[in-house]
Structures are given as structure tokens and as C-alpha cells.
Amino acid sequence: MARLRFHIRYPEEKIPEPILYEIGQEYQVVPSIRRADVRETTGWMDVEFTGEADEIDKAIQGLRTKGCIVDPIELNVVE
Amino acid sequence: MTKKMQSLVCRECGKEYPTQDIHVCELCFGPLEVKYDYTAIKQVMTKEKILSGPPSLWRYADLLPVEGTNYVGLHAGYTPLVHAKNLGHFLGLDHLYIKNDCVNHPTLSFKDRVVAVAMTRARELGFETVACASTGNLANSVSAHAASAGMACYVFIPGDLEAAKVLGNLIYKPNVVEIEGNYDDVNRLCSEIAGERRWAFVNINIRPYYAEGSKTLAFETVEQLGWRAPDQVVVPMASGSLLTKIWKGLKEFEKIGLVDSVPTKVNGAQAEGCSPIATAHLNGRDFFKPVKPKTIAKSLAIGNPADGYYALKATAETQGAMDMVTDEEIVESIKLLAQTEGIFAETAGGVTIGVLQKLVKKGHIKRNDVTVAYITGNGLKTQEAVVDAVGRPFRIQPHLSHFTKTFGIEEQA
What we know:
The structure holds two protein chains of two kinds. By secondary structure, chain A is of the alpha+beta class. Chain A has two helices and four strands, in the order βαββαβ.
């Protein structure tokens, strides 16, 4: 089992949708939210996914397909 | 030596960790930073001790996150603070200073500061291999320091990087890895490798120590101003870390009694083509929205800045300001600095000077303010940005008459 950490940002129009719940239903991953800030116009979450590495990859692709921006927990590391 | 480093502490929840190679809080995933014992440091760090120290950033070792004295990067820091009288006259400022990291050693950018500290700490933690993901200055600095320290080195770069920048790494013979894919692909892969290998990725798992090196810009500023904090600083922002650490450095000097007060307004500068932090500030927000960078100021082109939130906080706390400049304004500002002070800055320097001008015009920076603008890299590294904007040489035949005619001056008898 792998445990990987991500910073997920939601586009404004997706904020009311239960995206993380849907991802947990669609893929064999367990999301654990550690920190989040969701407002009317923006929202982000720092999340740890537990599951098989391939399944986490698919879940991340799923999030991107739903319009989320998914970055490593460190955000941009290329300087 | 005093046990000055107490722990790594989460900037969000305050949970403490031992001073090892970790960078994210296991509990809330917040970033970690070094916590010091300022009472102990105050006992040993005096003006006299600093003044008798080496002419490098290591004169401030008591406030840097290293335990011993086996330093990497012996010549980084202690760069000139230039009283910029000509540029000041042009802008209407009586006390303008340029902190000139164009001449930082060994690779002519402020990154030599953070890399010297990161690699010293990495070696203390037992690492034999260092690495980074970079599009320019950071890679140059890591490669050069690794060569001198005799450490194995991996530098990850996007596959479409300019030839000159690739050469600037290859000359030091690190393992340069070009990654096929876009910026996000490079970012993701490097984060994954950092999590998997026992390597010192200077700006990932060593980041709490790496970032502290930026404080030395503040320490030097205070010392070079005659042990006083400036009224205003203008700092270029990429990740936002530099701005937050300059502010931290000023406050640390106050904490240990090396400066009486810190009235400094901390101002941030970004390029319009990548301005998530400045845009948030100008819109009165305490959060930023990530952007896809499109600017000639590539050393500042971080669209999702890790310290953006903290930079906004530092600027708000000090009643500072932020602003942004277009690519055209960057080029004009590079020329202005060169032609008034003889300092050829890279594009990030153009951003700083351009925003300095704007903040003066807006009345935020006033004539009598002691103002320091931070120039973080050498213009020889980004010549392509100005190549079409500096004109051509006068071309003449090899005859004295051609010369005098060209310049409208008379031949001397």
C-alpha cells in the first residue's frame, strides 16, 4: 500500500460538488484531509491518499478530469 | 558551539520535530521551519564577533541552521550594498541602496546563499548526493557547490531549456537529467524522486535549512547600513520564500539586540506574466490563485508558489505593498539600473527596479526613506532578454577622421 500526499485546488464552479467523496467511491483509495480552506470563490485541500500506487495514479487523473489542479504537497519545486 | 537549533516546527500547527531531513508536518502537512534558541544565541552573537568573522555569509553562522564549521560554499554572501545615488536621483530618493547579489559567489546569484547553507546541513546529516529541480540559477549553484564539496549531484531540468543554461550546469559535470514533458511533469517527477531516494534535494527535503540562507541578505543589509534596519525593502518574489526570510532575518536581529527596532515595510515585486502573489495583494486577498507563467523573468516564474501565503502575511504585517511590471518594463528597468549604477541585473532585477519605480510613483516609498532593493542575479545570465533593446555599436573605418566625424568632435592638433 502506498501513501501519497497532494495539494488539490478546486475551480470555483466545482466548490459545491463532493468531488473527494466521488473519488473515494470511483477508485480504491482512501483520502484523508489534513488541511483545507474552502471559500465561495476558491478552495484547496492537502490530502493523503492511501491505496495501491496505480489506483492512486488513476484517482489523481480522475481529479484532473473533474477540473481540479493537483500538485505535490510541496507545490512548485522547480526553481 | 551553542546548541542553537532547537527543532523543526510546523508553521501551521506548531508541532515540533527533530532537526532531520524532513520538510512537511506529518500531522497537517504544513511546511516546517527551524526553531532557534534565541536566548542562547544572544549570549554569543555580538557585533564584535560578526565584524571579526569571515567576509561571507558564515559570519552569521550563529543564526544559521548548521551545527559545525565544516562549511560548503566558503565565499557566498557579503556582497556589496551600493548607495545608488544616480538611480536615487532619477527616482527622487535620497537614500536608495542596491543589495548587489549579481556578484555573489560562486555562480552570480543569491541562490549561492541558500545552497551553501543547504549543502552544509546536508553533509552534516550524512548525505552524499545532492539534487535539485531547476530552470536556471539554482541548478548552477547546486552543480558548482557539489563540485567543490566532492558530492554526487543530480540536476533535473525541463527538456526545452535554453542551451546556455544547460551549459552552465554541464561545465561542473553533475548528472544533468533532461525530462521530456512540461513544467508540471518535471515538478511531479522530482517530488516523487525526492520521496523515494535518500538524496538531499536542497529545495524539497532540505528546504527548512535551505530557505534560512536567505536571511543573510537581511543580516548583511543591517550591518552594512551601520546596524540599522531599512525603512523599505523591495524584494523579487518567485516562491515568496526570499521575502519572508528577509523579514524573519530583520526580526531575528531585533530579537537578539543587534538592531534597536525594525520599522521596515516589506514590499514584493513580480512580473505581470507570473504574479499570483502580487495579484492577490492588489485584490486585497489573503490567498492566491495559481497561474501558468508567461514572462521573460524566468527565475521568478513559479505559478503555484509554496510560500505565497506567508509572503502576503509578511507584507500585510509590515504595511508593505506589492506590485508587478510588464516584460517591456522589466527590460527598461534593467537598462535603467545598468545606465545609472553600472549594475547589469538579470530579469528578476528588472522586476525589482520596475516595481520600486511604481511604489515611488504611488507615494508608498518616500524621498527620505532608507530603501533597499534586492538584485538577485547577474545580467550575463539572461542576455537574450535585452539583446534587441540595447542598440548596436558604432561601426567605423579605421581612420581618425571617421571617428571624429561619427562623434562630431574635432581632431586634436
